[in-house]
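quick one: S-adenosylmethionine bound model?
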Amino acid sequence: MSIKIFKKHFPLKKYGQNFLINKNIVDNIIKKIHPEIGQTLVEIGPGLAALTEPMCQLLDQLFVIEVDYNLLLLLKQKSFYSKLVVFCQDALTFNFTQLFYKKNQLIRIFGNLPYNISTSLILFLFKHIQVIQDMNFMLQKEVAERLIALPGNKSYGRLSIISQYYCDIKILLNAIPEDFYPIPKVHSIFVKLIPHNISPYFVYDINILSLVTNKSFQNRRKILRHSLKDLFSETILVQLDINPKLRAENVSILQYCQLANYLYKKNLKK
Ligand SMILES: C[S@@+](CC[C@H](N)C(=O)[O-])C[C@H]1O[C@@H](n2cnc3c(N)ncnc32)[C@H](O)[C@@H]1O
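yep, here:
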């Protein structure tokens, strides 16, 4: 991408505007997403169209959600603009489910996400999981590592548990700071999240899983007997076959689901 375009738009830090400038990475991303004509594709944050333009070459229509109106004005001057269905909105409040009803088909979401909102955005998107085919995101390396982390890993936490509860997650490629302009301080990883067809996990109420993981990870080094003492007695933990001396970071997703379901059933009896 030429530097000329950056004279027309000064990148805004508050919107996490680090634009992709490495064409090889762009081509690779498009290949990994592998869009097909007729599918419902949705881009979060098209920015200066690094991904939007090559995507439009392969599609008849593309939904884009961009919070920065000035970027949309630049997009309007592009030849492929007629293929876009544009929403000038904060993706964190966007009703993704409405896009399912456009063609009655699952939606495919992608984007080089603004790093400052990527975690909240992913958690928000899980609320629309039933209409999503896959999510393909460029993320800060540390966030991607948290998504895929397993028990015992230093990155394992709430985000790993909730994300793996909903999705199978694959790392597709790495990017270095110089692949973006302005150059960020962090490295990046492009990931694919695919909602489970048949989930290995089940909870009656995701909010309870959220509560239990939240409490457990408030201090990840504390043992469960202490961190969860308001919710479970030591006897209950033993009955559930969960060692009360385990630390939050060593408890499996299955065990967190067990804890959440125990609480759910207990509340039902009240
Ligand atoms: C990292 S840039 C990526 C831009 C472009 N896709 C690229 O790869 O060069 C993030 C983009 O998301 C937009 N953005 C930031 N916060 C947003 C939000 N809450 N909702 C929608 N778009 C947002 C920014 O304005 C910017 O265009």
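The pocket of S-adenosylmethionine is lined by residues 15-20, 44-48, 50-51, 65-68, 71, 90-92, 112, 114, 117 (CB under 6 Å).
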